Amino acid sequence: MYKIIFFFAGAFLLSGGVSLQADDQWKLVWSDEFNGKNLDYSKWGVEVNAFGGGNQEMQLYTDRPENLRIENGRLIIEARKDHPNIQGTLREFSSGRLRTKHRGDWKYGRFEIRAKVPEGKGMWPAIWMLPTDGKYGSWALSGEIDIMELDGAKPNHVLGTLHFGDQWPGNRQSSGEYVLKDGKFSEDFHIFALEWERGEMRWYVDGEHYQTKTKWDSKAAPFPAPFDQRFHLLLNLSIGGRLVGTPDDKTVFPQKFEIDYVRVFQHDSK
Questions:
Q1: Overall pTM > 0.85
Q2: Looking at the domain 5-266, which fold is it?
Q3: Mean pLDDT of the region 231-259
Q4: What is the dihedral of CA 204, 205, 208, 210, to 10 degrees?
Q5: Mean of pLDDT values over 210-217
């Protein structure tokens, strides 16, 4: 864990080449720069299942190096069309999903991820957060925070979303979209960030603030529930699902979701 304190006077330039827009003192409390040869299992748990995330996804999540590995200082999550057999289940596609649950759990903070996403119909890369303790109940009573999702058929659009309200199917969501002015997100690395404070969340792409959320609710408890509890990070590359649909004959495999770093900052008072 880093012990560096960053002071901001309007903006500060990080090694990734982007300025953090901040007007207060933040402390780096957790990070993974992926500089080793192997995944750091003290920071990440790897999911192995055929559940499909409950979103009609089409992949098996595996822990194979074909799907998850460290390569040239980056985390690689690779989606493949290789007909894997995991736990006796056959699927057409394989991919990877990691989480920090019980290794990194936070209530409030700035979450910053530098990543390069894939493109193509049916590709669904995501950087998101789920409640660690589930205090208020099953999804989405305890909430979900989506820092970045991309529909591979719209390679210059990303979404930031909150899920809240009641348990499914009575849940609600509030979402905002960022559209890249030039090019596609698959062409280069970009920095996706969320600043989460009590009663307010702010989303950024490459230091540009594109939405703020201050209104949500919970059937289980007063505002700011459910976003007043510990959450953990998830990184995954889904294939197919409700948001993105099924890959077509133009979708190329394999596809890579590359993550350069993950950094978590908090105010000293948090």
A1: yes
A2: Jelly Rolls (2.60.120)
A3: 96
A4: -60
A5: 98
